[in-house]
Amino acid sequence: MPAYHWIVSGTSGRGIRVFRMNRNPKLRISLAHCSWTFLGIVVSLLFTATVARSGEAAGHRRLAVAYPAVTGSFAPFFIARELGLYTKHGLDIELVLAAGSGKVTLLLIGGSSPIVIGSGTSTLRANLSGSDLVIVAGVNNKVGFSLFTGPKIRSWEDFRGKTLGVTAIGSSSDIALRYILKQQGLIPGKDLRILATGGHRETLAAIKQELVAGGMITVLFKPIARAEGYREHIDLSTSGLELQTSALVTTRRFAEAESEVVRRFLSSFIEAVHAYKTRKNEAKGIIAKYARVTDSEALEQNYVYYFGIFKELPVPTLAGLKVEQEMIAETDSKAREYDLRRAIDPTFLQQIEASGFIRKLYGGER
Questions:
Q1: Which residues contact residue 363 at a Cβ distance below 8 angstroms, ignoring those fewer than 6 apart?
Q2: Do β-strands 193-196 and 163-166 pair in parallel, antiparallel, or remain unpaired?
């Protein structure tokens, strides 16, 4: 595979762009020594030069929307694309795959992706570093991951000295893993290592190659993990734990200057959730297409799980953000004083609900 700078590496077969970080160690940018703002500018300039296209499409507002992974959690955004819902609401959306919530947030801060599918943790960290990001909707307020391991792991003590895989450092899978490790008295960096694999398929491959002792796997890939003989050490989807695993995030400036665009995008998302709940076979087919999964059991379990996750009115979770705030505060004392209400803008959802849009979608059930 070629060495990438912070660029978009072309389009995949699914009509989305793939954003990759440079794999050449000599050219790699050190995230630990750069500010969110600086990296946002660097990423934005390179990214914008690659994806910019001239003009608006037939009067529709064009913008790129970045998301961190191909999982069932993001099905409504794929559905909105496939069913033409973005176009219906006057938008021309390019979905941009930028592995990990951290990279997604950099694109948002840099301005090249003014609306993103981010996470609570990446939003809070950015704001603590001086940004002014706001969550306008909660996409997934629960945790659907399971920690799968090879046959040698039988107890929590067996993880000491081992390496565990997550999709990306700072991703929802990473945050969820760190949370459960803390509950078990295990400290990453001291008792064990956490490795970014790049995706859930890659995590399964890393377990198979014994590069990691285990890893966090999302709902869609759990039946595949079981079929390959891996052991489900803990299933967080049954824990009731709330985290702002994924959310629609924008900047306060964009929300104020382009409020109609934000409302349109939210309306597209809400209508796509309705399509997910009422057009099951189409929804499963779209998930299969984007995730490249053909396992019928995996697709069915994924559908059933997210049927309960996706809400008619996608309100963010303050309880989940509080958990993430406490975790951030362990390494950043400023987090303890941060008012979580500053990270949420409920205005758009309130306006959409008041308009009767959701009630009309569901036939007056709301």
A1: none
A2: parallel
Instruction: Assess whether 225 and 250 both reside in one domain.
Output: no
The β-bridge relationship of strands 133-142 and 193-196 is unpaired
Q: Assess whether 273 and 130 both reside in one domain.
A: yes
Burial (CB < 10 A; 0-12, 13-18, 19+), residue 127, is buried
Residue 101: its pLDDT value, please?
Answer: 83
Structural domain including 158 reads 146-238
**Total number of domains in the chain:** 2
Q: Look at residue 23 in the predicted model and tell me its pLDDT.
A: 39
* Residue 1 falls inside a structural domain: no
Q: In this structure, is residue 366 part of a structural domain?
A: no
What would the pLDDT profile of 276-311 be if each residue is shown by its tens digit? 999 999 999 999 999 999 999 999 999 999 999 999
The whole-number pLDDT of residue 58 equals: 55
For the chain, which residues score pLDDT lower than 70? Answer: 1-58, 364-366
Q: How much is the pLDDT for 223?
A: 94
Which residue's structure tokens are 């009422």? 278
We report the CATH number of the domain holding residue 299 as: 3.40.190.10
Cβ-contact 174, 327 below 8 angstroms: no
Q: Break the chain down into helix, strand, coil percent, rounded to 5.
A: 50, 20, 30
Name the pTM for this structure.
0.82
The single-letter code of the amino acid at 269 is: F
Of 335, 315, 159, the closest CA to residue 231 belongs to 159
